[in-house]
Structure formats: C-alpha cells, structure tokens
Specification:
The protein is an alpha+beta fold and 386 residues long. It folds into three domains: 114 residues, Orthogonal Bundle (Butyryl-Coa Dehydrogenase, subunit A, domain 1), CATH 1.10.540; 109 residues, Butyryl-CoA Dehydrogenase, subunit A, domain 2 (Beta Barrel); 151 residues, Butyryl-CoA Dehydrogenase, subunit A, domain 3 (Up-down Bundle). Helix content is 53%, strand content 15%. Strands 1-4-5-8 form a four-stranded mixed β-sheet. The protein has a four-stranded antiparallel β-sheet with strand order 2-3-7-6, with helices on one face. It has a two-stranded antiparallel sheet with strand order 9-10. Strand 2 and strand 3 form a beta hairpin. Helix 3 crosses helix 6. The longest helix is centred in the middle third of the chain and has 37 residues. The radius of gyration is 21 Å and the shape is globular. It comes from Rhodanobacter panaciterrae. Keywords: FAD, Flavoprotein, Oxidoreductase. Pfam families: Acyl-CoA_dh_1 (PF00441), Acyl-CoA_dh_M (PF02770), Acyl-CoA_dh_N (PF02771).
C-alpha cells in the first residue's frame, strides 16, 4: 500500500472539504433538528462528482478510485453524517451494484442519473422480519405472460426511500430454494404499484430520509432484471462489501470531528485555573482517541486500496472491508462517547455538535452489517469454518 495520495485523490478530497465546510456545516444542526432531507446540497454534490466518485466518466461520474472515495466521504461525514449516508448509498450500494452487474443500457440510464445528481438512488434488501438474515426475505417477483416481473412485498429501513427515483431491489424469484432463489432488479419508483411509507423518526442521521416501501402488483419490465436470475443474493453480498468501506469512511469522519472538537476544548476549557488538557485523565482519553482514530483511518484506507487492487487483478476484499467497518464504527462510538464526557454538560447540550456526533455514530455499528455480523465474517474468513 502506498501512503502517498495522488493528485486526483487530493483534489477530490479538497473539493469535498471545501463544500462540506461552506455548504454543509452551516445547516447541519438545523437539518438534523427538523429531520429535513438536504436535497439542494445533494444535487450540488452530484455536479461536483461526489455522487459517483468511482463511476467512469462515460456514465457521468468522476472516474476515480476507492481511496479517493474514502477521502471524500470522510470530509463529508465530518461535517454531517446524514449527508454522508446519502452519499454512501448512491456511491457504494446503487452505482457500484449496477456498474458491476448491469448491462450497458442500464448503466447509461440509471448510473448516469444518480452520479450526476439528477436523481437519488436507494438499495432495498432489509425487510421487517429479515435484517441480518437477508435470505429470509418474503418479497416476491413472479413473471407474467409477457415475461415482465410482478412484484409484491415490503422492504424496511430504506435509506433515501422517500425521495429515491430508482432503487436496487432484491426479491424472491424462485421460492423454496433459499438464497439461490433471490434475484436483483432496478425499480423505478414512478411506476404504479410502488408506495413509500412515512419517514422513520431516528435517533441519529436525522437529515437522511428512511422509510418502509411497499410493492402491490408492481409491474417491472423484464429488462430491469439486474444481472442473472437467481444471482441476487451474491450481488447483494458483494455490494455490501463495498458499502462497508463507505460506512467505515463515514465512521472515521464522525470520529475525526469529535476528536478535533475535543482537542480544541481541552486547550480552551479551564478548570482549577489550568486547561483541562493538562489533566492526566484527559490526556489519557485523548491518547486513546488518537490511537483508535488512526487505526480506523488506516484500516479503512487499506480496505479501499485492496478493493482497487482486486478490481484490477481479481480477488476479494470482504475481510478487509469487515475489519475496517468494525474497527471504524466502534472507534466512532467510543471516541464520540469520550468527547461528550470530556465536554461535560456542554457535550450534552444541543448548543454544540458533540451530542449529534454521539447520536450519529451509533448507526455505523448497525447498518450494512452489525458489529456482530462483521465479527462473524472476519472469524469465518480466518478459520475457514462456518
């Protein structure tokens, strides 16, 4: 792994940082309080190339690599984790899946729209009764006389569900054979039979819209099958590997923001006549925060670099992605917790962003594979046992 970033990587990082500080930071607290989707900012991020960083130029993207994506994601997440969530879904789950498994027509029509910010994408795998056990889904896709797909069922916890134009959907196309009967589809939410429920009232990432979606005799053209029939589950799991790098990046951004705020506070806040940063207990916490943040950052960059290498030469990066996601998400939770503690009463107040970092950090331990699932993925890869 080369620790020197390229000119292109540093350029997209700079673009993301500049946009985050000028456009996202000033409105982050207000959007969080209102639970308001940052549509205008998302559109502008698409125009800047941030909604399709790894998407080739011919499909409307920035044409960069996974490391560039991580660097940009960290900058956006440090400003607002909710905006980073939307960015992650568009980049990692929607565009990545279609780029890997879609045909040319699908890439031109659906990837371009999302990468340029013209439309919002979503990813629908989870159902009310199936979270970590994704193969236990009930949503059905059956063929009609014309060979088109008729979809019925519900999906839950769909990030950007209320505002998405296109969704990568997973449904049972051949019942009775478990994961081998799952297929993937590209859904247009403007067709009849689609319904988005109310937005979920979440603890954190409140400016990202999340809802349940329902399909009632929804007819999807046969050309909207993504990849081969019956290959949906393997597509979903492969896409989640990439998605975990995005969430690790988000967690690093949250952790960095909490850490940097704590450093400044430890210098400025005085107790007993001296800065609290001179107290050994504060110094101990800061040292541990720094170590966890650096470890999370480097493991996330390693996962991104490995993903880039596997795309060139073949191979897998699932273990590296799981290690990064587990380490970064738990670091974000721990660091934001300690940040609130060091800030004392002000850390608990909405006058400062620490309590938002703390609330936002928790979801990184849950979505796109809980910490428990990451440990299982890592242990299975290490032992060879299932």
């Amino acid at each position: 792994m080369d620790f020197r970033f390229t000119e292109d990587q540093l350029s997209i990082q700079s673009i993301a940082r500049d946009f985050a500080q000028k456009r996202i930071v000033p409105v982050a607290a207000e959007l969080d309080a209102k639970g308001e989707f940052p549509l205008e900012n998302i559109r502008e991020m698409g125009q800047l190339g941030l909604m399709g960083i790894e998407v080739p130029h011919e499909y409307g993207g920035a044409g960069m690599d996974p490391v560039a994506y991580v660097l940009a994601m960290i900058e956006i997440a440090a400003a607002d984790a909710a905006t980073a969530t939307i960015m992650s879904v568009n980049n990692s789950l929607f565009c990545n899946g279609i780029l890997k498994h879609g045909n040319e027509e699908q890439k031109q029509k659906y990837v371009r729209a999302i990468a340029t910010g013209e439309a919002i994408g979503a990813y629908a795998l989870t159902e009310p009764q199936s979270g970590s056990d994704a193969s236990a889904m009930h949503t059905r896709a059956t063929k009609n006389a014309n060979g088109d797909w008729v979809i019925n069922g519900k999906k839950s916890w769909i990030t950007s569900g209320p505002v998405a134009r296109y969704i990568v959907l997973f449904a049972i196309s051949t019942p009775g054979i478990g994961a081998k009967g799952v297929s993937a589809f590209i859904v247009d939410t403007q067709l009849p039979g689609f319904h988005a429920g109310k937005s979920e009232p979440k603890l954190g990432i409140r400016a990202s819209a999340t809802c349940e979606i329902e399909f009632t005799d929804y007819v999807l053209p046969k050309e909207n099958l993504l990849g081969d029939e019956g290959k949906g589950f393997s597509i979903a799991m492969g896409v989640l590997d990439a998605g975990r790098i995005g969430i690790a990046s988000q967690a690093v951004g949250i952790a960095r923001a909490a850490y940097e705020a704590t450093l400044q506070w430890s210098r400025d806040r005085k107790a007993f006549g001296v800065p609290i940063g001179t107290f050994q207990m504060t110094q101990s916490k800061i040292a541990d925060m720094k170590c966890k943040l650096d470890a999370a950052t480097l493991l996330t960059l390693r996962a991104a670099w490995t993903k880039g290498e596997t795309e060139k030469h073949g191979g897998r990066f699932g273990t590296e992605a799981a290690v990064a996601k587990l380490t970064a998400s738990e670091a974000a939770m721990w660091i934001s917790h300690q940040a609130v503690q060091i800030h004392g009463g002000m850390g608990y107040s909405k006058e400062m962003p620490l309590e938002r970092y703390f609330r936002d950090a928790k979801i990184t331990e849950i979505y796109e594979g809980t910490s428990e699932i990451q440990r299982m993925v890592i242990a299975r890869a290490e032992t060879g046992l299932r």
